[in-house]
Amino acid sequence: MNIGVLGGGQLGRMLALAGCPLGLRFRFLDPSPEAPAGDVGELVVGGYEDGAALERFARGLDAATYEFENVPAQAVRKLAERLPVYPPAGALETAQDRLLEKQLFSRLGIPTPAFAAARTAPEVEAALEHVGLPAMIKTRRMGYDGKGQAVVRMPGEVAGALESLRRGAPGGAGGGAGPDLIVEAFVPFERELSILAVRGTAGEEAFYPLVQNEHGDGILRLSRAPAPSVSGELERLARGHAASVVRALGYVGVLAIELFQRGGELLGNEMAPRVHNSGHWTIEGARTSQFENHLRAILGWPLGSAEAVGHSAMVNLIGTAPPAEELLAVRGAHVHLYRKAARAGRKLGHVTVWRDTAHDVDAGLESLRRHLGGAEKTW
């Protein structure tokens, strides 16, 4: 069978690495001729809304998916006229807009930080009256890895925050009305957790255990799986939230939901309609990886077990990556390098430390830190 993937980044690459043992072949559509997924499948170079490129990409495919949420939803809808494409375009459109995400969570009874839509400075001021200070002002679209958001602690900081968001918006250089925004109350949460759900074409579901995530400069640095000190009740609550979302969206594939824990409460932050960075540990640390289960789901195949095996910690290699042989010197380390050019803030690969116990994982992380020269100060 021939599988198409919109996007040729590391997630597409890992989808193909999971699918090749199942006899699947892969084709990728990406604007860059250097897309790393080109190492493991056919690469069609072109824009997602380029009709000719989309036609070349679609020819002979049995099913398609996408590997990041900024793919134009219209391209997904156009492709879906010819072949099965999952997750559905409606889920993509919701995940592309932070306001629509929060509204979905609220409709489903999932708690969220207080929020309000805004665009102009007076609307932001009114929203701050509603949600209170401190607050987060975020662009509704095109935000990831800490981009498209600013913290406001005092009323006098609003103008500067809006200017930074205007400059950071696509094509923005200050001035003008600026991008559509969402203003959210700043949540003093205890930790960030994420849950990955997978749903098949017949509605069957599987849930990976909660994962604890640690960030630096808005970028995920470390994921621990299963998350430590999680009660059965908290796990059931997270699975209930995820189940309500995938069912409401008629979802097929892997969906990640980022959650803030505050006591026994889980607040919905954001969702990603794709395989997710906080699920990379599943390659070595689960009965079935998120990548294989995503493929099984979109093809209508039986889902694999999402049970964790032992304990894992996944560390992103950001901006720079030591030689593989140095990282492999850490016992229990599994190295994944994406063949991407080094650049500040760029994810170049990840290392998963797998051990039988959480204590042994902590020892492995200390060894890994030494090999990284102490660069990962967030853990």
Structure description:
- The protein has 379 residues and is an alpha+beta fold.
- It is built from twelve helices and 17 strands.
- Strands 9, 10, 11, 12, 13, 14, 15, 16 and 17 form a nine-stranded antiparallel β-sheet that branches. Strands 3-2-1-4 form a four-stranded parallel β-sheet, with helices on both faces. Strands 5-8-6-7 form a four-stranded antiparallel β-sheet, sandwiched between helices.
- A hairpin with a 2-residue loop joins β11 (211-216) and β12.
- The longest helix has 17 residues, at 232-248.
- It is globular and about 55 Å long.
- The model is unreliable at 171-176 (pLDDT under 50).
Q: What is the fold's blueprint, element by element?
A:
Layout: E1 2-6, H1 10-19, E2 25-30, E3 42-45, H2 51-58, E4 63-66, H3 73-80, H4 89-95, H5 98-107, E5 115-118, H6 121-131, E6 135-139, E7 149-152, H7 158-168, E8 181-185, E9 191-199, E10 205-207, E11 211-216, E12 219-225, H8 232-248, E13 253-262, E14 265-272, H9 282-285, H10 290-299, E15 311-318, H11 324-327, E16 333-337, E17 347-355, H12 358-371
Parallel strand pairs: 1-2, 1-4, 2-3
Antiparallel strand pairs: 5-8, 6-7, 6-8, 9-10, 9-11, 9-13, 11-12, 12-15, 13-14, 15-17, 16-17
Helix pairs in contact: 1-10, 3-4
